[in-house]
Amino acid sequence: MSTPAIRLHAPEHQLSSTTDSFPTSHDKVSKIIDTLQFIDNKFVASETSEFIELHDPATNNLVTRVPCSTDEELQASVQSAQRAFPKWRATSVMAKQQIMFRFVALIRQNMDRLAAVITLEGGKTLADAKGDVLRGLQVAEATCAAPELLKGEVLEVAKDMETRTYREPLGVVAAICPFNFPSMIPLWTLPVATITGNTLIVKPSERVPGAAMVLAELSRAAGFPDGVINIIHGSRRAVNFILHEPAIKAISFVGSNQAGEYVYKTGSANGKRVMANLGAKNHAIVLPDCGKDHFMKSVIGAAFGASGQRCMALSALILVEKTKEWLPELVERTKELQTNGGFEPGADLGPVISPQSKDRIESLIESAKQEGANILLDGRGYAPDKFPNGNWVAPTIIDKVTPSMRCYREEIFGPVLVCLSADTLDEAIDVINENDYGNGAVIFTQSGSSAESFRRRIEAGQVGINVPLPVPLPMFSFTGNKKSIAGGGANTFYGRPGINFFSQLQTVTARWSRDDVPTQQEMAMPIL
Ligand code: NAD
To answer: Which ligand 1 atom is nearest residue 277's CA?
Structure first.
């Protein structure tokens, strides 16, 4: 029995920001407006009575209330996507490409607005928030190459017989996103899932939904038809809906291991394709022959940028031989960083996302002390004068860390760098390979043979050689290894693997012969 069609009759609303008018400070928001949903190309208010309060991490002032979409609203989003699918899949790739060109241009025009929303809701500095927008925009730009990426193959496999391949869409697909890249991570999925002919439901993080809502507005202005992109909100219940809704054929997830392993297991058990990027502990090995100044600058940016809340943040250093003597200088240079509200000029890093996150980070710093590590720089207890109530943790450097300590085993996801030491490169590689996570690993050295030996042995998806955040541009794919990616890393975001994830390979073998003389009845498997 099919579910009766649900159409929401709520009047359409508009977003509070525009291309030219958006937040510019951490001042109290004068009128709290609830976050809207985006269903069938319309912004609709939720009928729910269940809201999640979203506070500015720099002040803890209320910014908006995020609705937990009702069952009816969740259903309405799926039905909208289902209605849109037949026409969208039949739309030529060239027509879709034109929409993507306009989408790309609109994101560029709205870069400052998107960044401002990210800074207000998530705490990043404005400059870093622009990077968040840019790295997502690059995925949309690379996806404009779809006519090339979706081209099939053809081969004459026997006389008068050829096999060709097609990449067909899957149907309705969904994206479940984390808080730390409010624009980039929705854009890891949105362009790829739609250009391949699918219709999409996005569930942004309930902690930072604003950027995804702006992207929805831009997608409509770019010409995406009704129902191709829908946005719903909530946390566990919305995720469970996505996991169990039969019409949803594939799910992309980015977030913690706790949620992601559950999403991968449940989604896969329900017969869906699932791609899930999870937690991390990213290491840098420092060899004595490296360019010391470059190493210092690189590590400080990669460890403390975005307050360490990047899945590729450099959170563990392994200092080989005499490089451990460089730590006092690293500490002095780190002290120069300004931890402040993201809208403040000169801010290098902002607050962490929530009071709970701050407490967790502080307890991990304390555990390091209790377990015998040496805290060289302690960022606890800091608050800028202007924002005494924010979730502040200033840069922290911990030395004499060993692999058994909690601060090393667990992902801290804060501005905390843990430092270990090793006598040789091989010993350092062994330590990294024994760690549960394998998102990124980096080496600083001037030696080509050391770099190559590291590259061959290291168990990490994204490897950097004198590059601190080796995230590939979207003509490649965002990989991972071990516990940092579910399903052994078979599915990865964007690039050709992303196109493959969001499409079904179909082969057609055809025989076209002018002299179609009946041949002898074949009973065995044909061998030619
Ligand atoms: P999170 O797991 O708390 O949330 C991610 C999504 O899952 C959200 O949409 C949330 O609503 C949902 N969710 C949370 N708990 C759930 C539960 N119990 N059941 C079902 N759904 C649930 O992650 P976060 O704190 O928003 O993001 C930070 C994490 O994401 C870090 O671990 C970071 O390393 C990881 N991350 C990984 C990558 C990567 O590419 N490997 C990229 C960015 C972030």
So the answer is: 41
Per CATH, which fold does 37-278+485-506 belong to?
A: Aldehyde Dehydrogenase; Chain A, domain 1 (3.40.605)
Query: Are 442 and 284 within 8 A, CB to CB?
Result: yes
Beta-ladder partners of 51: 67
- Per DSSP, 489 falls in state G
Residue 436 has pLDDT above 60, yes or no: yes
Average pLDDT in the chain: 96
State how far the Cα of 211 lies from the Cα of 187, in Å rounded to an integer: 10
What's 20's DSSP letter? S
Q: Which residues have CB under 8 Å from 281's CB, separation 6+? A: 315, 316, 408, 411, 435, 436, 437, 439
Q: Which whole number is the average pLDDT over 373-390?
A: 98
The closest residue, in CA terms, to atom 20 on ligand 1 is 236
Active site residue 311: yes
Whether the CA torsion 208, 302, 104, 175 is positive or negative: it is negative
State whether the beta carbon of 173 lies less than 6 angstroms from ligand 1: no
135 ligand 1 Cβ < 6 A = no
Q: Which two three-digit tokens encode residue 290?
A: 């490296």
CATH architecture of 282-474: 3-Layer(aba) Sandwich (3.40)
Q: Whose CA is nearest to atom 40 of ligand 1?
A: 277
Q: What is the domain partition of the chain in residue ranges?
A: 37-278+485-506, 282-474
Ligand 1, atom 39, residue with closest C-alpha: 277
Give residue 3's pLDDT: 59
Bridge-based pairing of strands 172-176 and 199-203 is parallel
Compute the residue count for the chain: 528
Q: What are the tokens at 25? A: 């400070």
